[in-house]
Every structure is written in structure tokens, then in C-alpha cells.
């Protein structure tokens, strides 16, 4: 962790509030350097459930959720030995969902990547919560939705802007995760996106299906056996019907004596290959935005599939902070 910043250095508070986890960071504006961080398992789902268990009164909903933020602010204050009062706060993720501290409607496509057309709510600082904040909503198409990735996308485009010659070319930004997103960008706008339930399907198949006894986690994607199993899965997922190839996890164990750890990586490759097979065959420029170990797995899968375009890779946390900083500036917090 970086040493505390001097009080004179402009800073802001970055909050990433997901369904199952909470993360708050103190960030230096000029460098986007994370000065301190507090995280916990008070995700939106658990916080919403606690509010409902306490009576679910609408008039105390904001204060109930803001107490979670205040708890982590106190942690950052102790860690940095500095007052954070008055620092602006940007909250993205599921906090603006129907389970969040305030539900905001999804913004429409196309989405301007300078953050000017984002659906947000700005809240002024008050006596009980001395931080002006921007709550960021998600984006919708005619048949799909996302919350959180839009902020990372804005940051990714700021960190990796297209040159003039490439501006008219279609770019696709890939965000691996429980519900992976592929976002199509043309020029200065996001124009379409798709959601793939890759991570959730993996969790269900590996823990709650007939395949559960044939897989075992705990080993990284390294070593010749695991890499070969993953690569085999990627090729199978891209080439055949997933409902058929998924059962190969079971028959690999029964007929081929494949170790459960090898089958774990085979299943991972299978689902990632099924997700990426169409994209890898396109001419669009692809940018992968993620964090290891998923980022490394997706990089390898693109290589196995012989992606036609060079692959750019960005760190998800860097993109989140860059996007939130743009939003804080755009909406007058900085």
C-alpha cells in the first residue's frame, strides 16, 4: 500500500459496490494512485437484505446504505491518519440498482464515451454525510443491461484512445466475469453490447451439476497438464455444441482418468471458448479489460482461437479509477 498523501494533494473517493462485495479507495487525482483501500463483504445484496430485515422503510434506506460507506471511510481515516471530510465520492456498480441505495433508470445507447450522457444522480454533502457524491447508473440496449462496466469502459477508452485512423473502425471491449460483457464501440460511442453468463454457468456446473464430482479447484492455470486441458476445452467450446461438450467433463473423468483439477481447467476453457468463438473470428480491434486470473485465461483463449486482430489488454482497476475520475470531473465534483 502506498504511503499517505499530503492533505494538499487533490484526492477523491472511489467506490465500487458490487452485488457481493464492497470496495472504497482513496485516490490521488493527478496520478490516479491508490493511497489507501478498504474492502469487505457488505455487497449490495447483503446490505439490501439487512435493510429489509430491519423493516425496509423507504425513508431510512439511504441512511442504512450510507452507514456501510461511513464504516469504510472510518477505516481509511485510521489508515491514513488524515481527515477525509469534504472529499468527493463516485459510486458505481450495483448501488444504483433496485437493490441499491437508490434505484436509477438505465441510460440508453449510444453511450458517449466522454461520460457526458451518463445517467447519474448527484447528491450534495450534508451534515450527516460530508461528501458530495455522484451515483452512476447503468446502460441498457433494447434487450440487455449492464451496471459498472460502463464506468470501466469510459476509463478504458481514456487510457487507450483510438488513433485517428482507427476511430472509424469497430472496437470491442471484453469484460470477463460472472456475467461477461462484450461492448461494441464505434468512434466516440458505445453502440451495442452482449452479456454472457460464463462465470455463473461455470459456478453452477462445477458445484451443482452432475459434473461437480469430476472437477476440483485450487490449482492455478499453469503446468503442461492444466494448460493442455484448458486449451482442449477452449477448442471444444468454440467448435461444438456446449450442451454436448459439457458432458465431456464427466466422460473425461470416467473413461480417460482425467484428474479433477485438469477437468476444472477443461470446463473453464470450454465455457470461455464458447463465449469467444464468434468474436475471435471477427476483424474488430479487441481490448480485454480484466484482472488476473481471469484476464490471463482470456488472453490464452484468444491466442488458442487464433484471434484475427491484435489483442490490447488493460487492468480493470485502472480503468475503473480512470472512468470514475472522468465522471467526477464531468459532473463538477473536482
Structure write-up:
The chain has helices spanning 44-53, 61-80, 149-159, 198-208, 224-239, 242-245, 248-255, 260-280, 294-304, 316-330, and strands at residues 11-17, 22-28, 34-40, 89-93, 107-108, 111-112, 120-123, 133-136, 139-140, 145-146, 171-175, 180-186, 189-196, 285-290, 311-315. Strands 3-2-1-4-8-7 form a 6-stranded mixed β-sheet, sandwiched between helices. It has a 6-stranded mixed β-sheet with strand order 6-13-12-11-14-15, with helices on both faces. By secondary structure, the protein is α/β, with parallel strands linked by helices. It contains 10 helices and 15 strands. Helix 4 runs antiparallel to helix 8, helix 5 crosses helix 8 and helix 8 packs across helix 9 (294-304). Strand 2 and strand 3 form a beta hairpin. It is globular. 38% of the residues lie in helices and 22% in strands. It folds into 2 domains: 11-160 and 320-330, Nucleotidyltransferase, domain 5 (2-Layer Sandwich); 198-316, Nucleotidyltransferase, domain 5, CATH 3.30.420.310.
At a glance:
The chain has 334 residues and is α/β, with parallel strands linked by helices. It contains 10 helices and 15 strands.
Summarize the SSE layout with pairings.
Elements: E1 11-17, E2 22-28, E3 34-40, H1 44-53, H2 61-80, E4 89-93, E5 107-108, E6 111-112, E7 120-123, E8 133-136, E9 139-140, E10 145-146, H3 149-159, E11 171-175, E12 180-186, E13 189-196, H4 198-208, H5 224-239, H6 242-245, H7 248-255, H8 260-280, E14 285-290, H9 294-304, E15 311-315, H10 316-330
Parallel strand pairs: 1-4, 4-8, 5-9, 11-14, 14-15
Antiparallel strand pairs: 1-2, 2-3, 6-13, 7-8, 9-10, 11-12, 12-13
Helix pairs in contact: 3-10, 4-8, 5-8, 8-9
